[in-house]
Amino acid sequence: MDQSSTSALLQGAVRDLATGVASALASGGHDPVGGDTTVTVGTGSHTLAAVRVLGADLLLPHVLFGTPVDPDTAALFRKAVDAYPPRADAAPTVVWSHWAMARTLRRLDPGPLAGESGAEPDAGWLHDAPWQVLTHQLAVLAPLALPDEDHAVARAARRRPVDVARGFVRAVRRRDWVQAAGAGRWLTLLDGVPDTLGLEAGLVFTELMGGGDPRVALQVGAARRVRAGALV
Amino acid sequence: MPSIEETLEEVTEIQNAEIEAVLNPLECDGVFRDSRRCAALALQCGTGQTLLSPPTPRPKKA
Predict the structure, then answer these.
(1) What does each of the 232 residues of chain A score in pLDDT, given as a tens digit?
(2) Residue (of A166, A180, A167, A169) closest to A209 by Cα position
(3) pTM (two decimals)
(4) Can you say whether the dihedral through the CA atoms of A193, A198, A200, A202 is positive or negative?
(5) What is A99-132 written as a DSSP string?
(6) Alpha helices of chain A — where are they, by DSSP H?
(7) Residues A63-96: b if buried by 16+ CB within 10 A, e if exposed
(8) I need a surface site. Which of A87, A177, A224, B6 has the fewest CB within 10 A?
(9) Which helix (H) or strand (E) holds B12?
């Protein structure tokens, strides 16, 4: 199987997972059958890799609504954390993504993690990043955007709310809906966001234009839940 | 012939490289179209705030 078709399969698996998470967020934990916010995870060949790519957001409904994680999903999540540690030369976003997964696992399914010290990675690359780069990187690390989090990436975002707001508008103008949605999720957590931004309207617009992409629906849904104070 | 373990290790390494590429994406190229439609949709969102005002028109060629 060539690399392009492998990438397409992986992206497809990620979108499937994102669809489940977006649906669980939209249901608000009030599923009429069992009140369950568990995302149905398939068993395809790229499922484990897709779990690693979606990262901490796979368990976001459980984080926001305080619902228990079913053992099979927790085991798969843990397996993804163990199977795909960042390589030695990994980019900061890769390292932080893995850290976020390990942190979520400690929160929801405490247990030993091989090779995980829990220490925060370095976030120096964000400190003097141009606002365009800052916003793009924050959007990639949107799974870290949770209320009351105090880690280096969140602190970098809190220091520059106007820059993130500018980046949000830029993403919308460029029709980069995934970046806009991720930036919008961060903006719901930040103080000092200009009122003139019209964040709520911007999120609605982003969802209208990009909601066919489940990753966009996931981030916009997360932003709405965070604004509504869903965190338990 | 490589062992099953070697093959699995190679597959995992390839997947890890692919995963890391997805988790460290380059910013996609911007697509600027239909600024008027964008602005109209923004206004329809209900607040009337012009988040997406159209760009300054290009000067017409003489």
Answers:
(1) 445 566 888 999 999 999 999 999 998 755 433 334 456 666 566 899 999 999 999 999 999 998 989 899 999 999 999 999 999 999 999 999 999 999 999 888 777 665 566 789 999 999 999 999 999 999 999 999 999 899 999 999 999 999 999 999 999 999 999 999 999 999 999 999 998 999 999 999 999 999 799 999 999 999 999 888 755 4
(2) A180
(3) 0.83
(4) negative
(5) HHHHHHHHHHS----TT---PPPP-HHHHT--HH
(6) 3-27, 47-54, 60-65, 71-83, 92-108, 124-127, 131-140, 152-159, 161-173, 177-187, 199-210, 214-227
(7) bbbebebeeebbebbbebbeebbbeeebbbbbbb
(8) B6
(9) helix B4-23
Are the Cβ atoms of B28 and A176 closer than 8 angstroms?
yes
Q: B45 near A205, Cβ under 8 Å?
A: yes
Helices and strands counted in chain B (H then E): 2, 0
Please state the domain extents for chain A: 1-121, 123-232
Angle between helices A3-27 and B4-23 (to 10 degrees): 60
8 A C-beta contact, residue A95 and residue A87: no
> Are A176 and B45 a contacting pair at CB < 8 A?
no
> Do B20 and A140 lie within an 8 Å CB cutoff?
no
Cβ neighbours around A7 below 10 Å, total: 14
CB A126 within 8 A of CB A156: yes
